[in-house]
Design goal:
- By secondary structure, this protein is an alpha+beta fold.
- The protein contains five helices and 15 strands.
- The protein has one domain: Deoxyribonuclease I, Chain A (4-Layer Sandwich).
- The protein has a seven-stranded mixed β-sheet.
Length: about 300
């Protein structure tokens, strides 16, 4: 039996699920790790923040990101957000990951070069069929000057690891930029589209295990996620284990100082039994990114 370990990696933070009672499975190499990683504006211009210049990533930065994914975190599946897939930075990072056995499916929708990309370690998990971009709305006009164009459609892949078959749906939902009431309405519409499309996908494929993974741009109890909750999905970030940091969104502050938890893994407990509840963890700082496991 394969079990799930879920890692949510925000702009510079991540959360993980490793049930203590499954520690033996992790040590035996039977745990699947699925994560989300927003590499803020990779390959695009980043403005200074709080007086700190945040330019392009150096070769050393990209090497560190690749090592973090493949060695420190050892992710079998990772959903990236805010990737300029046309940039040299992405080409360089992609090559480093491909050399480690990773394959990719790149989203095609974003008018700001902030693409969602699904990646998986083909040595560890097998993609069933072809990955796809879900055909949901990427533009909204809700009246009262509430509109948005060029949003990011979700990407999805069905995977098999040992005896476990499951869907991973990678998302980057509407940001908070704009009028709060409008951004919430748009995000809620996106969530409704997502549940409708996932239900159709489940019916068509017969596979009921679905993980929604990504940058959702609001706390899990925000009203805009009502369609997900009503559709049976629960954010794993509701259940933070002892010693966890509080937030997954930071730019230049220490991870411990952030309480803005906007990156999530959602699943339906009645369909996915491989994850033990109340085991979510938001990593607390740079030291937590070091690989301290025995080889």
């Amino acid at each position: 039996m394969n079990y799930l370990r879920l890692i949510v990696y925000g702009i510079i933070s991540f959360c993980g699920l490793l049930p203590p009672q499954l520690a033996h499975a992790w040590q035996a190499g039977d745990t699947i790790q699925v994560g989300t990683y927003n590499i803020e504006l990779l390959g695009s211009h980043r403005k200074p923040y709080a007086g700190e210049n945040r330019g392009a990533r150096s070769a050393a930065d990209l090497e560190a990101i690749a090592n973090r994914i493949t060695t420190t975190l050892d992710l079998e599946i990772v959903v990236f957000q805010e990737i300029n897939k046309h940039s040299q930075e992405w080409a360089d990072l992609k090559a480093k990951l491909a050399a480690k056995g990773y394959q990719f499916f790149e989203g095609s929708t974003s008018d700001r070069n902030q693409f969602v990309i699904l990646s998986w370690d083909a040595d560890e998990v097998e993609l069933q069929g072809s990955a796809l971009e879900l055909n949901v709305r990427d533009s909204f006009n809700l009246g009262n000057s509430c509109s948005e164009d060029g949003l990011r459609k979700p990407v999805a892949g069905r995977f098999k690891a040992g005896s476990f078959d499951f869907w991973v749906v990678g998302v980057h939902l509407k940001s908070r930029s704009g009028t709060p009431s409008c951004t919430s309405r748009i995000r809620k519409e996106q969530c409704q589209d997502l549940v409708t499309k996932i239900d159709a996908m489940v019916t068509s494929s017969g596979e009921r295990d679905v993980l929604i993974v990504g940058d959702c741009n609001e706390h899990y109890d925000h009203s805009s996620f009502a369609p997900l909750v009503e559709g049976g999905f629960t954010s794993q970030m509701r259940f933070l284990k002892s010693g966890s940091a509080d937030g997954s969104y930071v730019k230049t502050t220490d991870l411990n100082e952030s309480d803005d938890l906007i990156d999530h893994v959602w699943l339906r407990y009645h369909e996915t039994q491989e994850v033990v509840r109340r085991s979510a963890e938001v990593m607390r700082g740079a030291a937590d990114l070091m690989d301290t496991r025995t080889p």
